[in-house]
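### Sample
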Amino acid sequence: MSSHKSVRSVVASDRVITAFTPAYDSSATPYQKLNFHPIVKSACSENRTGRVGLKIAKAVLVGDVSVGKTCLVNRFCHDVFDREYKATIGVDFEIEKFTVLSVPITLQIWDTAGQERFKCIASSYYRGAQIVIVAFDLTDEKTLHHTETWMSEACATADDPVKFLVGTKKDLLSPSDYSKMEQKAINVAHKLEAEFWATSSKTGECVQDFFFRAMCLSFDDMLLKELESYNSTSKQIGNNLIRVQKSQSDLYEKRNKRVHCCS
Ligand SMILES: Nc1nc2c(ncn2[C@@H]2O[C@H](COP(=O)(O)OP(=O)(O)OP(=O)(O)O)[C@@H](O)[C@H]2O)c(=O)[nH]1
């Protein structure tokens, strides 16, 4: 297992999210929200974000061999592109610190190997992911056909994730070849109930927007769940308190009745 970690103690200014990043194509996404949930926005502005500020959003990146998964991560995390192919051995990971609506949150990106012989190792890292990214090569249609299997395997142990279908190597296609491929990819994305993106790690096209979008959707989901669980716990504590108060007042009433009878 190889790994090159980049843990930044201070959030870089280009990792500060103050507005909701839109979808690549509003007709190619199941996620139709255009902004952070109002409850999320007010919780952030009033500093009521519970444990979310301490949380890590886990993303797993899967797909066929050599579709460009490592290049996608390297373009986003280090702003570099390597034209030489070096196979990922097992799994690799990167950590990026963000601030979303002034709340600190860490994104952990697990870059898995596409080679069949590493599948067993790589799949053990899918568990608990809040973001599943299935990558395919826009210049190689058979890699698109395999995305259904990748998605179902990665989602099997993920945590109700936001799902993405990401086409890579857009720089290698002519506009007309791209639009033919895009339509096929959007059809697959609908089937997978995933959001479609097309990127180029060589030119950097849409790479940062894609990861920002993933962060926005997952942050919104995580904070809503956190606030819901906080509210239901408070409600339960409230109900228990009412029950205790009621049984205390019943006891008091019974004792008063007894005192009254005896006298
Ligand atoms: N032109 C172009 N080439 C790319 C792009 N992304 C990746 N490549 C090339 O595709 C090859 C494979 O890229 P990787 O990122 O190593 O592929 P991978 O999916 O991580 O491969 P595995 O680790 O084996 O699963 C490399 O030679 C890259 O230079 C891109 O956006 N444009």
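The chain has one domain: 2-228. This sample (Ras-related protein Rab-36) is used throughout the tutorial notebook.
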